[in-house]
């Protein structure tokens, strides 16, 4: 396989004719994509490859192009097709995130969230893992959230016969609660969509890059709930974010719970129906508030 990759990159003049591969190693194999470290005698790269043909890698390339105005969230792409994507390599110390890095992340996430649109969604569908996100433009957040996230993934879960009658009843009830209680945000804001620890690259005392975006325009507090759910940051992150961009009371009272439902639906489809137990716990918690 490595020989085939090298031949393609050489034929397309992505690699210099004097460039020889010195190191090639697998970093991760998840959700249909292999992420590899590729080092030549001249440069270091990240090479993503996949066997299943879809638009996952070209979509990632297009997202990085769109994010080029925010360098912390963008990467250089040297070559990309449906099978492989040769990308900029970023040094990463893989240490725990400290106070300064938390401040940097909060401040830059606010910059990302300040990118606005007239609609919720995006100009094309994006992916979380290899699971497609329906980003058809919608001018109402509650409608977008219910139809293009809640209903969209719930129908996929139903098609796999994962739901008990009791959980199905609870999910129907939760949908009514969301429709009644979810307020419209002031403006759609651009979110990263997959903010968790392994996607935050750090070097020394700095944040060097935030990678693997799954962007769309949303209520930006959807992202804050995702960060909370994954335990990416502690209390200090929310304090710093709130300093630059106030967090609503509704977030802590309601949205932090309902916005966790969608990632759990996605994990159910990507990994295992065991996540339905977490959905049920959240519904019971929401019912008590």
What's the gist of this structure?
This is Fructosamine kinase. The protein is α+β, with helices and mostly antiparallel strands and 289 residues long.
Give descriptors for this structure.
globular; 19% strand; 10 helices; single chain; Phosphorylase Kinase, domain 1; Aminoglycoside 3'-phosphotransferase, Chain: A, domain 2; two-stranded antiparallel ribbon; 5-stranded antiparallel beta sheet; 289 residues; transferase; alpha+beta
**What is the number of independent domains?**
2
CATH top level class name of the largest domain: Alpha Beta
* Structural class assignment: alpha+beta
The SSE order reads HEEEHEEHEEHHEEEEHHHHH
* Order of neighbouring strands in the sheet with most strands: 1-2-3-5-4
Radius of gyration: 20 Å
Q: List how many beta strands DSSP finds.
A: 11
- What CATH architecture of the largest domain do you see? Alpha-Beta Complex
In CATH terms, what is the fold-level topology of the largest domain? Aminoglycoside 3'-phosphotransferase, Chain: A, domain 2
Q: In terms of per-residue confidence, which ranges show pLDDT below 50 for 5 or more consecutive residues?
A: none
N-C termini distance: 55 Å
The fourth-level CATH homologous superfamily of the largest domain is Aminoglycoside phosphotransferase (APH), C-terminal lobe
Separate helix tally = 10
Which geometry do the CA atoms define?
A: globular
Keywords: Kinase, Transferase
Family: Belongs to the fructosamine kinase family.
Pfam family, one: Fructosamin_kin
Organism: PS1 clade bacterium
